[in-house]
């Protein structure tokens, strides 16, 4: 597969293929990115790449503040990511296809995108108004026994949902039936579980679907056991994440 070059949108979260990403875009570097995406004809995909931040800040400092009131305001496409942005990001991310890019009256943007394909980050270019990256698309291999593992993960996930709903003292809204395609299951569960960014990143970059499902099965059993022990564990909605303010 050939490499691709796309605009790069670093976030403090992990995007998985098939998952929806709402964004509220207000920083000038990302506003410039959206203006560029709007130049793409409507019948062509408006794509950018999302990578999770390993060491840095999602939103650049725009004014001096604690702990150093004299700190220099950060500007430019690399603001918040140090002198070598490649080192600030995890190396596996996801291409996002923007279905909606709507400019508000104040010049900010409302964006709704969907994750499509995993990519490996090869290089980062900071010479323009926003970051761009050279990316290597990663194929999704099924691995051994992916189908059977997906069935086990779905059973454990439903139990996890029930325990989590009980911990929040609320009824479980099942909604639509969960999918049964192993790859889709693996990404949906990875996105829906309450996990820290490094763990979600580990799931994203799993070598194949079966490996991801095996990891999720262990995590689900562990997390369900924790919720059973600590019924007051705080939680967020399982199938919704917060809008990233960028």
TrEMBL record:
InterPro entries, A to Z:
Lon_prtase_N (IPR003111), Lon_prtase_N_sf (IPR046336), PUA-like_sf (IPR015947)
- One Pfam annotation reads LON_substr_bdg
Question: Which residue range or ranges hold the Lon N-terminal domain?
Answer: 6-224
**What's the domain of life for this entry?**
Bacteria
Q: Quote the PANTHER family the UniProt record gives.
A: ATP-DEPENDENT PROTEASE LA (LON) DOMAIN PROTEIN
Q: What is this protein's name?
A: LON peptidase substrate-binding domain-containing protein
State the organism of origin.
Streptomyces hyderabadensis
């Amino acid at each position: 597969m050939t490499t691709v070059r796309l605009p790069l949108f670093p976030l403090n979260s992990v995007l998985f293929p098939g998952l929806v990403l709402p964004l509220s875009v207000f920083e000038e570097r990302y506003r410039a990115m959206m203006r560029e995406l709007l130049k793409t004809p409507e019948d062509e995909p408006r794509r950018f790449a999302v990578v999770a931040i390993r060491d840095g800040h999602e939103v650049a400092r725009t004014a001096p503040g604690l702990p150093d009131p004299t700190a220099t305001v950060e500007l430019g496409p690399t603001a918040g990511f140090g002198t070598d942005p490649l080192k600030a990001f995890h190396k596996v991310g996801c291409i996002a296809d923007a279905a909606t890019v709507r400019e508000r009256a104040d010049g900010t943007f409302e964006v709704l995108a969907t994750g499509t394909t995993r990519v490996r980050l090869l290089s980062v270019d900071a010479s323009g108004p926003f970051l761009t990256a050279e990316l290597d698309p990663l194929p999704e291999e099924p691995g051994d026994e992916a189908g059977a593992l997906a069935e086990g993960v779905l059973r454990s996930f439903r139990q996890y949902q029930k325990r989590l709903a009980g911990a929040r003292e609320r009824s479980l809204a099942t909604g639509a039936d969960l999918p049964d395609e192993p790859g889709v299951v693996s990404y949906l569960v990875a996105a829906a579980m309450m996990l820290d960014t490094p763990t979600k990143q580990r799931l994203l970059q799993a070598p194949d679907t079966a490996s991801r499902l095996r990891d999720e099965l262990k995590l689900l059993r562990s997390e369900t056991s924790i919720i059973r022990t600590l019924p007051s564990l705080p939680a967020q909605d399982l199938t919704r994440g917060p809008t990233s303010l960028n």
